[in-house]
Structures are given as structure tokens and as C-alpha cells.
Write a structure and sequence with these properties.
mainly alpha; 5 helices; binds heme C
């Protein structure tokens, strides 16, 4: 189901409405182009073995994990050194011993590929999402470099 702004108008627009609609349609055309630029990744054996970007940085990954925006991992996960965190998901202590970097990468890219009913956001997916605010259409929540930072940091949690 395309976003409502991508559907044909129910009645002929006029003036400013026409301009706004033209801009909205333009955004619809641009979004798939942005999505098409995502580096492709291959899911194999429950993971993504190939890094999405240059090797990540554990300190950046740690800072990202503890930040409310844009990752907000701690809304659901307890994590070492984080005082106020949610408990909707398993604590991340020891996750680097439980999961390989490839498994961690797939978790972050698109957890629904492991558990279709998961509540964990797909941090590196653009297709198949509904109710995405205009500013985010065609964009991933995190960049490829940020995913790699998190993979490196999570791998240190043993
Ligand atoms: C809205 C809640 C939510 C948010 C936000 C969230 N997760 Fe999750 N995550 C889950 C749930 C629930 C699971 C348990 C497995 C499942 O249901 O998919 C999970 C599983 C995981 C796992 C596997 C844990 C294990 O022990 O198997 C990792 C790693 C993970 N999340 C990392 C993250 C990181 C890093 C972030 C932030 C970038 C994040 N999650 C954001 C809900 C969330």
C-alpha cells in the first residue's frame, strides 16, 4: 500500500495544494532511488557475513547504543553501564559471546528476518515499511557505518 500522498487525488487540487501535491509526488519518486543506493547484503546461515561498510568503532557503537536518538536500543534492552533502560528485550550483556558478528549484523539490519513477529525495529531496511513519516521515506534509521560500529561494540560484550 503506497503512502497516501502517493495516491491520485480524490478531487482536482488547486493553487498551493497543487504545489504541495507535486512536491509529495516528487518525494515518492526520489525515495525508491535512495533505497536503490543501499549496498546490497546477502543473508546466509542466519547472518550477514560481509560488513556493510569499513570496520566499525567500538566507542562510537557504545555511544550510539546508549543514545535515545536515533537508535534508542535502551528503550527495550538493558546494557552494561546504562542506568535507565527498558526490559522489553533480552539484556545485551554477554551478547558478543552468544552471537557472531554476522548474526549481530542481521539482527540490526532487519530482525524480522529472524523473528517475523519481532518488535525490534529494522535499522537498515527501507522496503516493506508502512506509516513512515515523509522525512524518513526511503531512508534507513541507521547508516551502514553505524551498523558496523554497533556490531563491533556488541561483539565486545562477552
Ligand atoms: C522496540 C524494542 C527494541 C528496540 C528499540 C531494539 N530492540 Fe533489539 N531486540 C528486541 C527484542 C524483543 C529482541 C528479542 C528477539 C526478538 O523478539 O526479535 C531483540 C533482540 C536483540 C538482539 C539479540 C539478543 C540475543 O541475546 O539474542 C540484539 C543483539 C539486539 N536486539 C540489539 C539491539 C540494538 C543494538 C538496538 C538498537 C540499535 C536494539 N536492539 C533495539 C527489541 C528491541
Amino acid at each position: 500500500m503506497p503512502p497516501r500522498s502517493c495516491l491520485p487525488p480524490s478531487r482536482p487540487p488547486s493553487g498551493g495544494r497543487r504545489l504541495r501535491r507535486a512536491l509529495a509526488l516528487l518525494a515518492c519518486l526520489v525515495a525508491p532511488a535512495v533505497a536503490a543506493q543501499l549496498p546490497p547484503y546477502v543473508i546466509e546461515d542466519g547472518g550477514i557475513a560481509a560488513p556493510l561498510a569499513a570496520p566499525g568503532d567500538a566507542a562510537r557503537g557504545r555511544a550510539l547504543l546508549a543514545a535515545r536518538d536515533p537508535a534508542n536500543c535502551i528503550l527495550c534492552h538493558a546494557a552494561p553501564g546504562v542506568r535507565f533502560a527498558g526490559d522489553l528485550a533480552p539484556p545485551l550483556d554477554g551478547v558478543g559471546a552468544r552471537l557472531t558478528p554476522a548474526q549481530l549484523r542481521l539482527r540490526l539490519v532487519d530482525s524480522s528476518r529472524i523473528n517475523p513477529a519481532t518488535i525490534m525495529p529494522a535499522y537498515y531496511r527501507t522496503e516493506g515499511l508502512t506509516e513512515v513519516a515523509a522525512a524518513w521515506r526511503g531512508r534507513t534509521v541507521l547508516t551502514a557505518a553505524q551498523i558496523e560500529d554497533l556490531v563491533v561494540y556488541l561483539s565486545t560484550l562477552r
